[in-house]
Amino acid sequence: MILIDRFSPKPVFEQLIDSIEQQIVLGVYPPGTLLPSLRELSVTLSINPNTVQKSYGELTRRGVILPSVGSGCYVAPDAPERIRKAAESRLPELTRLCADMKLRGVPEETILEAVRAVYGCETVTIQKEESDHA
Amino acid sequence: MILIDRFSPKPVFEQLIDSIEQQIVLGVYPPGTLLPSLRELSVTLSINPNTVQKSYGELTRRGVILPSVGSGCYVAPDAPERIRKAAESRLPELTRLCADMKLRGVPEETILEAVRAVYGCETVTIQKEESDHA
Amino acid sequence: MILIDRFSPKPVFEQLIDSIEQQIVLGVYPPGTLLPSLRELSVTLSINPNTVQKSYGELTRRGVILPSVGSGCYVAPDAPERIRKAAESRLPELTRLCADMKLRGVPEETILEAVRAVYGCETVTIQKEESDHA
Amino acid sequence: MILIDRFSPKPVFEQLIDSIEQQIVLGVYPPGTLLPSLRELSVTLSINPNTVQKSYGELTRRGVILPSVGSGCYVAPDAPERIRKAAESRLPELTRLCADMKLRGVPEETILEAVRAVYGCETVTIQKEESDHA
DNA sequence: GTGGTCTAGACCACA
DNA sequence: GTGGTCTAGACCACG
């Protein structure tokens, strides 16, 4: 299920990108899956079709999804790998946040601890690989 | 020293807030200090007085500085604590970001390394990293 | 209906905040309502868009309205409660004022009468009393 | 003892007026008393002499104090009465505050209760009249 | 179209 | 001189 918060500081089109990538990584949309159509998504999420188009366009540019004229978009075979690379490009975002906290006197260990806590707890990481031991 | 990067994606008024809070945390502007006046800052930084006013207004709202019409703005007695606490309250933000990256397959060490890099380098370098020149 | 008195000693942006919060409390703008856009309000009230923005910004900070770039500002679900609580937190202000007047020999009944006058008359009359035309 | 808060939203010269009137009403400065000189007050309170002058000027205008060229200002014989009248002229201030609270949904009884509480408790109301039963 | 930021220049009361 | 408010007009990314 995809949820959009129109009042989030994060733009809707970015939220949609994140959500779709998340569904792919979680295995809900495994490679080869046909994604919902523009109109379907815009209706179910109550957002502007142009916004969905913007998200699909960016996902296409990243090679995460493959548009097929007339029949929608499909999840690329190497989507998980491309998603990981895209995620690493978000490091500057994290760097900026940490810099903000550092200059305000937050100790390094506080942040490292928070990061380790995230990676420490085994959350729902049902990778596609885990379920394709065929 | 306060520096503004006009090409940073971060709004000027936020950069100014960051700089002033950093000077306070570093002890360059200890509690009780009289800050530069709106007009003085606007001239030395070559930005509009209204922009400085916006920053000062936000700092006032946060209880970091105390304005006194006719005599100037002073650093609040408990400014450093307020700044640090406000920064620590942003930890969930960082946690969410890390969770997103973990889910997408970014290894823990990549993130820890980025954090250490932020804390390892000197302030001037941080200033550079804050600006993407996107 | 929102009215601005250019000759009131109260700043325009505060008058606008008052008016909007009142409309929310009165139920004219129930939670979820889409507020007039910045430009629309600035035109109908003949005030500068920046001034409206300042009011909207403050209401956003108070959690009374939720802005969504590209679609407008909406009244928050818990707006009425937030507004009332914020107002009640100003009681000490009133207490101090009354203590001052008591100390100077102003009889209790004079004050009670003034309060009853405020609550006795209709909203329109309150609008008039708010402006001193000093 | 007179205390000035330079960070109060209330202007310093008004605080000084209030404080002096309070000292008079409390009997610390009974009618006929020679008030501290401009310079003395400006030094002990660490405020600008012009500000003290402004306060003294307003008190003179109200007839609360009587300037005597070359020898300072004296508390007027009918000072308490004039102070009471001046206090009543502050009713619009109270009216505005109540109007603000009313339009935000604060019930009338909440305010009346607060007022009665102020007048109910017997605070330090050592009127001059009480100590001149000579 | 929307909210948000920035500049330029003006005016006010206060110290 | 100070902080604070307001106007006018411009630009940006988002929907």
SSE order and pairing:
The structure is a homotetramer of 134-residue chains.
Chain A: H1 12-26, H2 38-44, H3 49-61, E1 65-68, E2 72-75, H4 79-88, H5 91-103, H6 108-120
Helix pairs in contact in A: 1-3, 2-3
Chain B binds a DNA duplex (15 and 15 nucleotides) through helix 3.
Main β-sheet of chain A, in a few words? 2 strands, antiparallel
Query: Alpha-carbon distance between the termini of chain A?
Result: 27 Å
Largest interface (CB < 8 Å)? A-B, 40 and 41 residues
Averaged pLDDT of chain A, please?
91
Helical segment count of chain A: 6
**Share of helix of chain A, binned:** 40-55%
Instruction: Name the poorly predicted regions of chain A.
Output: 128-134
Rg of chain A: 17 Å
Structural category of chain A: mainly alpha
Total DSSP E strands of chain A: 2
Question: What does it look like?
Answer:
The structure is a homotetramer of 134-residue chains. The first copy, chain A, has 134 residues and is mostly helical. Chain A has helices at 12-26, 38-44, 49-61, 79-88, 91-103, 108-120, and strands at residues 65-68, 72-75. A two-stranded antiparallel sheet of chain A has the order 1-2. In chain A, α1 (12-26) packs across α3 and α2 (38-44) crosses α3. Chain C binds chain D through residues 10, 18, 21-22, 25, 80, 83-84, 86-88, 90-91, 93-95, 97-106, 108, 110-112, 114-119, 123, 126, 129-130, 132, and chain D through 18, 21-22, 25-26, 80, 83-84, 86-88, 90-106, 108, 110-112, 114-119, 123, 125. The structure holds a DNA duplex (15 and 15 nucleotides).
